[in-house]
Amino acid sequence: MRTLRALAFNTLFIIWSLLVFVATVVTFLLPRRTLVRAAEIWATGVVVLMKAVLGLRVRIEGRENLPSGGYILASKHQSAIDTILLHLMVDDPAIVLKKELLRIPLYGRYAKRLGMLPVDRSGGVAALKDMLDGARNRLEAGRAVVIYPEGTRREPASPPDYKSGVVMMYRQLGVPVVPVALNTGLFWGRKWRHREGGTLTVRILPAIPSGLDKADFQSRLVNAIETETANLGA
């Protein structure tokens, strides 16, 4: 029965995504905010499908912890659903992503139009400077810059593996960092069959203020995310 539900959900997810992508091609000729709204509609539809087909509910806690103006949102990353839910958590997020993802048909065009932040991981110092400049521009426009501090998806209960990128951004950009814990990997795994019912929780934690030294910031960030992720059972 689980396999059938997973198959039904994945099929409907693909159909819904294609319908939205095709229907919003015209938005490339309209203001960018129109495409931002379309991304929110797409994410809302995915959440509706999750509840209807899988019996999986989404709970987002702590929105009151999001600062006004530009900030960095540093989130645990366990599942493909994480990026989708960002469109319901944050207005117009600028997500740091691998440059290779821009080569994916349709998705790459949408990511560029939405003003995401591609990073060429083989580009060295020049690529990092470009990413920081892009992040600064988006922060000045009042957008949230989203980064996954471990760089990639991690299985629930995996040992933490935080990279230096988020520390560099924190020190160079001088804005608060909002940690996010979640348990998405318990319900939406890498394999297509791993789609479970239950209550998926994303917990937005109090912001870490700017101006801390490197060690203090990293300690606060890791402790906040890992403690709350463990509290969520993941």
Describe this structure in words.
It is a single chain. By secondary structure, the chain is of the alpha/beta class. It has one domain. Helix content is 45%, strand content 15%. The chain has seven helices and seven strands. It has helices at residues 2-23, 32-54, 81-89, 107-113, 124-140, 165-173, 214-231; strands spanning 56-61, 71-75, 94-98, 117-119, 144-147, 177-182, 198-204. The protein has a seven-stranded mixed beta sheet. α2 packs across α3 (81-89). The protein is globular and about 50 Å long. 34% of the residues are buried. The mean pLDDT is 92.
Briefly characterize the structure.
The protein is α/β, with parallel strands linked by helices and 234 residues long. It is built from seven helices and seven strands, in the order ααββαβαβαβαββα. The radius of gyration is 17 Å and the shape is globular.
